[in-house]
Every structure is written in structure tokens, then in C-alpha cells.
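User: Just a sanity check before I run the rest of the batch. Below are the C-alpha cells for the first item. I only need the designed sequence back.
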């Protein structure tokens, strides 16, 4: 029996049950607010969700490896382990194979990146030589504090004051050498990932592995201000990526349990259709089922352009005129049920299958794939990233079977040829499987079932406009105080009090982070506090007048 719903009005409605929306709802409910989350889909979690794709087989619909949220403090602040969240550490967190026979350049041993820095450096020394191993150790020491500053900058609105507080300590003297944020620090952060790698390392194999890791945010490492995306590897020697037991949706399931424990609720399959606005401010939402959820606060945790549609004629200029760069797609995802995990010749499974299988040995492969993408065509030589978390989590598939995700980046949503993605899905999938097969012979033959998420299918299934998993491009022109637009970067919507933004469209962008959801909740609570203080001040003034 469905429990009776608490009566309206609510204190807040959250639109979208993605992880940022649920994080916002949890922080609000924790403070005693009456909160309801409304979701169009019948599946909880948006792009952080897991479904039974085939009988007895749990398959992620979006993200699989969680990185930023494990460094944000949100899991601990909301005590999500008490609500069923359990991560399997990806350790080793990265694997890059040796070049296959016939490729240019020397052969050699694979690169294995572990939480253990000494073990990682030993792997680099064996594959690339002692100079690069020592350089990597210094790189981690240099970029660890820098990446922690990035984490700090993600924890709130991207105001100049917050950014200064996050990064200023890096200018303190270190090792007897004065360092200033306006010196080499600025050059590094504004420079490209490729330039950073070229300054630090000599081995192209090492550079390619780190560049492919950094490129997961979207831009090629040749673009300005991509150095920090490479530098993030330093933090993975503290806390590695993780995969929730049972699938990526384990995170959003735990968030829902936390929300409901604090009195909040989630309504699936009942989309928010219209923002209610009265006297120039938010008054709630109307849903597809005809319900009117009255609330003075709406946190819109969906795409910023979906929020614009939700507001309709009530959208103020900052929202009505929003035109952030959406790009032309992002990637192609294969979800495979196999008889065996990828097997790399001469490499034990425990070294290759722990985390991200970075199947790239030369940055020219990345440059060529991005060049094809920019030209509006499929990559002639796709670059895969493979993950097989069923090797460490037996809840995902029956014995003897495995779930393998293969990610191919830089696949255009619109093709210059005008070709139909539904017709291209099969050939593109076979080409991407063959790219894995070059490094793990026999993998393609092990595939028993295959679900293909083209850029168009990502839009259909997960409401990711133009197939962009980051909502808005992650280049320098749309980050920090420019995301999604300068007018909306504060996550409040100017001209429409009570409406707040969250999700990948906002700072700090895409990926499993939760930061924008937490920031939105903090803004709501701060605004409520200001209103309450104002009312108390007015009441005190009225009392003095009466006396």
C-alpha cells in the first residue's frame, strides 16, 4: 500500500532525480524542509542509474566510475554509507597497454596506475624508464595541492573571492622558492594538457595515457586550460575512482533513502511541466499528472534549457536568452554482456581490470579522433576506454558472465554527411569493439549481448541534449563564472526569486560530483535565513514602535 502523502504546501520542489537534484533535496530535508523530488523517468537517478538490461544483469545507463564525489565530502556529510552506499575502490585505477605489434614505437610493458605511488612509479620505470618515473613522483607532489585547490573551488559558487581563497595558499613559499599565483601557477592552469605533459615527461606512452584520462572531461588536451584535467590524477593516489556495489545507481538509491529518512519524497514518472509563478516569484510546479505542488522554492536540477522551457513565458531575460554552447555530441557507449572480461596478453587480470582501461598509446590517435569529430564524421580510428566492474562486483552479472562498458569519445551528434545514427549504430559499434580487440584479442567474440548508446540515443534515453553528457561544453569559455552563462553562474535566476539551478549545466560541470546540488541547497538555506532575520528585525522594530 502506498503511504499517504503529506499535505502541501511544500518548502521546496526539486525537478530531476539525478544525483545533483537528490543531493540538493537531501541537504534541504536534513535542515527540516519539506521537499519533494519530481522526475519524468520511471527510473531514479538520471545519468547515475542502473537497470536490469538483460535478465539478472545490472547495467549502468550513464556514469560508471565515480571520481569527484569521492573527494567532495558529500558522501560523509550525508552519511550515505549508513543508507546502503558501498564503493568498490578502483585499484589499480588505470591501465594502459603496451603498443600492439605493428604499431610505431617500441613495445614494452603496460602502465599500471595504482593508489600506491611507489607501485605506480615502478610500473612507469619498467615501461618508460627511470627519468619519467621520477618525474611522475614530482608531478604528483606538485599537482596534489593544486588539485585539492580545485576540489575546494568546486565546493561553492565560482565567485572571485572563493577562487582566491582556494588557490592563494599555492603561492606560499615552498622548498625555499617563492611561488606566486600570478607566476608559473597561472601559466600551468591556463596552459594545455599537452604542453604540461611535454614539459614533464619524455615517454609518449605515458603522455598518451595521462592525456586520455584528462580528455574524459571533453576537450582535447591541446586546448587552453586543460592542464588541470591532467593534474587530477594526483588525487587518485589518495582516493581512487569507485564503483558502487550493484551499479552506479547505488549512489542515487542511497540518496533517496537518506532523503526519505528525513521526511522527503520522490515521485517518479510525473514530470514537472510548468513552473508556477505568482507576483513575480516562484510558487511551485505543475506536473504531468495535473498535480500542483505549491512551494516558494524550486531547484531545477535538469538541463538549463529544460529549465527555460519549464519557466515558459515567465522566464526572465537571463534565462529566456540563455544560449550556452551545447556542442555536437560527445561520445558513443557500448554496454556489453560477455563470456569473459577483456584479456590483455601477458597481463594478469588484477592489474588490468581494476579501473579505467586507457586503450591509447600515442596522442596522435586522440588528435585524429578529435579532428574527425570536428569535421562531423565518425572517427576513422576510434580510441576506446573500457571498464569491467563485474570482475570485482559479483552482483552485476550471473556467474561466468561479465558486464563491460566501452566508451568511445568524440562521436558527433550531427554528421556532416547527414547520415542517420540509427543506421550507423551497428557499424560504429563493431568498429569500436574491434578497437578494443586490437589490445585484448578475442574480446569481440566474447560479446553475447550489446546495447548501443549513440549520441542520439543518449538524448532519447537520458534527456542529454545533443548527446552531450556534460550538458554544456567543458571548455574555458563555459567554466567557473561563465557556466552555463555569466548571468546564471550564481545558480540563482536573476529576476525570478525562488528559482535555483543545479546539475551538470552549472558549476563545476559534468561528472559525478554533487557539488552543484549542495551549493544550490546552501543558497536556498542562506536566502531563507536572510528572510527570517529580516522578519525578526521588522517584528522587533514594530514592537519598539508600539512601546
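Assistant: Here's the designed sequence for the first item:
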Amino acid at each position: 500500500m502506498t503511504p499517504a502523502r503529506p499535505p502541501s504546501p511544500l518548502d521546496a520542489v526539486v525537478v530531476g532525480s539525478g544525483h545533483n537534484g537528490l543531493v540538493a533535496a537531501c541537504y534541504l530535508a536534513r535542515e527540516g524542509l519539506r521537499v519533494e523530488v519530481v522526475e519524468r523517468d520511471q527510473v531514479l537517478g538520471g545519468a547515475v542509474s542502473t537497470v536490469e538490461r538483460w535478465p539478472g544483469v545490472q547495467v549502468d545507463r550513464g556514469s560508471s566510475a565515480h571520481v569527484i564525489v569521492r573527494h567532495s565530502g558529500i558522501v560523509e556529510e550525508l552519511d550515505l554509507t549508513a543508507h546502503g552506499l558501498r564503493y568498490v575502490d578502483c585499484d589499480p585505477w588505470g591501465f594502459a597497454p603496451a603498443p600492439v605489434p605493428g604499431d610505431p614505437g617500441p613495445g614494452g610493458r603496460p602502465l599500471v596506475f595504482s593508489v600506491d605511488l611507489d607501485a605506480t612509479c615502478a610500473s612507469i620505470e619498467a615501461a618508460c624508464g627511470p627519468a619519467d618515473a621520477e618525474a611522475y613522483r614530482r608531478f604528483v607532489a606538485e599537482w596534489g595541492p593544486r588539485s585539492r585547490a580545485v576540489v575546494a573551488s568546486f565546493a561553492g559558487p565560482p565567485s572571485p573571492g572563493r577562487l582566491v581563497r582556494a588557490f592563494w595558499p599555492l603561492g606560499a613559499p615552498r622548498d625555499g622558492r617563492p611561488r606566486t599565483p600570478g607566476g608559473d601557477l597561472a601559466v600551468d592552469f591556463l596552459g594545455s594538457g599537452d604542453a604540461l605533459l611535454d614539459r614533464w615527461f619524455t615517454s609518449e606512452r605515458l603522455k598518451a595515457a595521462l592525456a586520455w584520462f584528462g580528455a574524459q572531461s571533453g576537450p582535447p588536451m591541446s586546448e587552453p586550460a586543460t592542464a588541470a584535467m591532467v593534474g587530477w590524477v594526483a588525487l587518485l593516489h589518495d582516493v581512487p575512482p569507485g564503483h558502487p556495489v550493484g551499479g552506479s545507481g547505488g549512489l542515487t538509491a542511497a540518496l533517496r533513502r537518506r532523503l526519505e529518512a528525513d521526511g522527503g519524497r520522490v515521485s517518479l514518472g510525473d514530470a514537472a511541466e510548468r513552473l508556477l509563478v505568482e507576483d513575480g516569484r516562484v510558487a511551485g510546479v505543475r506536473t504531468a499528472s495535473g498535480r500542483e505542488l505549491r512551494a516558494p522554492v524550486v531547484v531545477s536540477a535538469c538541463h538549463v534549457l529544460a529549465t527555460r522551457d519549464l519557466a515558459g513565458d515567465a522566464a526572465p531575460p537571463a534565462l529566456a536568452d540563455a544560449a550556452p554552447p551545447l556542442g555536437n555530441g560527445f561520445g558513443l557507449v557500448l554496454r556489453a554482456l560477455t563470456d569473459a572480461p577483456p584479456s590483455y596478453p601477458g597481463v594478469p587480470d588484477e592489474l588490468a581490470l581494476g579501473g579505467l582501461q586507457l586503450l591509447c598509446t600515442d596522442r596522435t590517435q586522440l588528435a585524429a579522433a578529435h579532428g574527425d569529430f570536428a569535421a562531423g564524421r565518425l572517427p576513422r580510428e576510434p580510441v576506446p576506454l573500457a571498464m569491467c566492474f563485474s570482475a570485482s562486483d559479483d552482483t552485476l552479472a550471473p556467474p561466468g558472465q561479465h558486464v563491460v562498458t566501452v566508451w568511445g569519445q568524440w562521436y558527433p551528434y550531427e554528421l556532416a554527411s547527414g547520415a542517420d545514427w540509427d543506421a550507423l549504430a551497428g557499424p560504429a559499434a563493431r568498429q569500436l569493439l574491434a578497437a578494443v580487440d586490437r589490445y585484448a584479442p578475442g574480446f569481440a567474440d566474447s560479446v553475447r549481448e550489446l546495447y548501443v548508446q549513440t549520441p542520439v540515443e543518449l538524448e532519447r534515453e537520458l534527456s542529454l541534449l545533443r548527446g552531450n553528457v556534460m550538458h554544456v561544453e567543458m571548455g574555458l569559455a563555459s567554466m567557473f563564472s561563465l557556466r552555463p552563462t555569466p548571468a546564471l553562474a550564481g545558480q540563482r535566476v536573476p529576476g525570478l526569486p525562488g528559482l535555483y539551478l543545479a546539475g551538470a549545466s552549472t558549476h563545476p560541470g559534468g561528472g559525478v560530483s554533487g557539488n552543484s546540488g549542495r551549493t544550490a541547497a546552501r543558497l536556498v538555506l542562506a536566502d531563507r535565513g536572510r528572510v527570517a532575520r529580516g522578519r525578526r528585525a521588522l517584528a522587533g522594530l514594530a514592537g519598539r514602535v508600539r512601546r
